[in-house]
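User: Here's a protein and a ligand (flavin-adenine dinucleotide). What would the complex look like?
Assistant: Let me lay out the input and then the predicted complex.
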Amino acid sequence: MKEPYTKKDYKTRSYWLESLGEITLNSSLQGEEKTDIAIIGGGYTGLSAGYHLRIYDSSINVTLLEAEICGYGASGRNGGFNMTLFGLTPSLTKLFFGVERGKQARKFMEEAVDYLAEFIQKNNIDCDYENSGYLLVATNKAQIKRLEHEIEVAKEMDFEGVELWDRERLLSEFKTDKYYL
Ligand SMILES: Cc1cc2nc3c(=O)[nH]c(=O)nc-3n(C[C@H](O)[C@H](O)[C@H](O)COP(=O)(O)OP(=O)(O)OC[C@H]3O[C@@H](n4cnc5c(N)ncnc54)[C@H](O)[C@@H]3O)c2cc1C
């Protein structure tokens, strides 16, 4: 027989779950229930879909079904970076999709990053949010060339807020000489 959910030691599964106070689980679904929309999975995708459906129309009855506990999957175990990157470098985006679609993708990601910052503020989410930008660093000389190329492509596609730092700036801002750039 499957062990009762209340006995699972979720606090040992991730930093996020460990940092929560007392965890009280909802009872599991018994029998059948009717709902307008059933969402499977309480990660970012499911929770965001449920939240925004209710913002769109508060009369919609949304039911979210989570097999374990919300945040049990990747959403509770990730690096927590909210970035304009979406898996492809600027040069690969340009290569696969061209300059115009690359610009559109960048704009979309900038809006997404801003939206999350607003969302956190509006909903008073206690998540140590920092709007700090991000660094891509080089640990060898070949990577310096790649970074310089990415900066050129980013400029060609009019990406704002992208700049190349030298070693001295990295040293002065982050007190490290581990990286070339
Ligand atoms: C190590 C790591 C680091 C990452 N770092 C970042 C980062 O810094 N920035 C970033 O933007 N992204 C990052 N990601 C990616 C990001 O975490 C995922 O893209 C995102 O969390 C996916 O969310 P999701 O809701 O789609 O899936 P999940 O968070 O995996 O949620 C799926 C949920 O569905 C539940 N479920 C599964 N099957 C069922 C079922 N049959 N019935 C009911 N419930 C079910 C699971 O228990 C789980 O809770 C990282 C991912 C990993 C793994």
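Summary: Residues 38 and 143 are 46 Å apart (CA to CA).
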